[in-house]
Design brief:
The protein is built from no helices and four strands. The protein is mostly beta strands. β2 and β3 form a beta hairpin.
Amino acid sequence: PQVRFSKDVLNSGSVGSVTFDVDFGDLPQGLQFQPSDVWNFQYWYRDVNPTPTSNTTAGITVAFCP
């Protein structure tokens, strides 16, 4: 399934970067990581370059090993 951490909207401010810590006990839609799961993550952000737009970061893959 595809889920969004929509309650965790962050603002980079003048620094231009954010840090996001996943709360494994409160995942969207009540999902839980299971041993041997492989999840893909990508960050979606808004940008002004030079006009308002949105972009995504390069994705990462995380394997949850038992």
